[in-house]
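**Protein record**
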Amino acid sequence: ALYWLPAGFERDAVRMDYYGIGHYDFRRHFIDLSELIAPAIWSDSGAAFPVFRFSLGWVQVALGVLGLATVFNSKLRRSDTLLMTLGVFAATYMMTSASQGLWEMIPPMRYFQFPMRFLGSAALAIVPLCGMSMRWILLINSKWVRTFAPASAIGLLVWSALPLMYPPAWSEFGELSSARFHSEELQGKWFGTTCCHDFLPVDVEYIPQPDAFITEQFRSGVEQIEKFERDSLPDGTNISVARSRTQSELLQISSSNPFDLKFSRFYFPGWTASIDGVDLPIDITVPDGRISVNLPAGKYDLLLEMASTPVRSLASTISMASAILIVVILFTNMFKYKGDSLSDMDHISGPSIALAAIVLVVGIGLKVLGGSMGWFQYHSSGRNVHVAENRMYASVADEIELLGYDAGDTVLEPGESLDIVLYWKANVIPSRNYQVYLHLRGDNGELWGQSDKVNPASFPTSRWSVDKYVRDEHVIVVAENAPSGEYQVHVGLWDHVTGERFLALDKNGWLLGESIPVSLNYTVQ
């Protein structure tokens, strides 16, 4: 309730017209069922954006199926097994394209943006099913099976999870300060929101230009930042900042005349202005949606702060009451519960528990040792891309190198899609943002399909690191009227502003032309 209640009832206060479109359209992010049940893949420390597979894990799925199967045995059946099973199936359904109709039928679903967010719900539900899979040993009289089964399951779970235990290391981030945050925003990446400017107040029709005086305060390290327009103050008005925080302002004001004070803050529901506890009306400026307060003459302290709204207060109360209720229920049932799970423990021997503990300790040790030795991950460096199926070399504009590619299916039919992955790396910091194109050409050079991107690997080349390669995925649709024969993919970089196409050289320095021919041929039947 703390999050969802205000998000639901106050959604009209913020801009959401850009939400759920373009890259954030849920239709672009459904997960194939094969990926959900696939094993984890090794990451590559040499990749700028390591590939990650959204998977429940093949071991978890296998154990979950065994746990699910207990509902068909009257001796092993538990009432909560069906609940967990429904949870797994529902979450899995919502992540696959089979649920697209449901997503489209319920408009608020678009705010989830990424179907893979249901992966957490699926994982939460499959864990009890994995544990229930061990109930099958109750029907087995073999002492060896009862002893080794739990340890084997734990060992498989730990082993399958090892590739996920080594997230990419953070690069040097630089200082953390208000001046740094302000500087990053001024570079035009994100203005206190996402790149689409969603979640801005509905009254903000355009983003105001940065205030030079406020920027200078941030850069000079001023502790209390003036976040109002001083230039518009009337003569005889003095304002000093007693306190300036992210959600409050305390100003000491002296003025001989009434005046309007315009703040460099957007108005959201909850902002209040008061003098000595007496609330003042807040005006919303047009068209930039900022806070403006009409102030009287005199000497006084003005408090501007973000207060709770009735909806937020209700949400906080519900969340707190729910948390207390859950604790009471758990604490009460802790002393009353005598269900099957306690009797199940009677069938787990001491050696079985000890063996499972040993396996767990060994797994932890393996994880620690693997981290220091670089196990369970690839380490591409230089011009070697370990994960590339095919290696090659070409240099474009003496700034960017093509180091390899994954060809995908090489035998196609008209109308089918050709999936190809390119591996790029910058040998110097690129001087511009390049655009990339892929052309599928026949023997006579005629074009029969193409793929274009504003940014290779969907990331501006001017921000590429010279230490990491990028993985650039493309899909080329073969023309419906493409004749049978041999085809070749040509890759090139260009500048969409000037229209210039950049020359490419091979490893020997020989000119390839304005595009790089991929050495592998494709056959259209």
Remarks:
- The domain at 390-524 is CATH 2.60.40.3880 (Immunoglobulin-like).
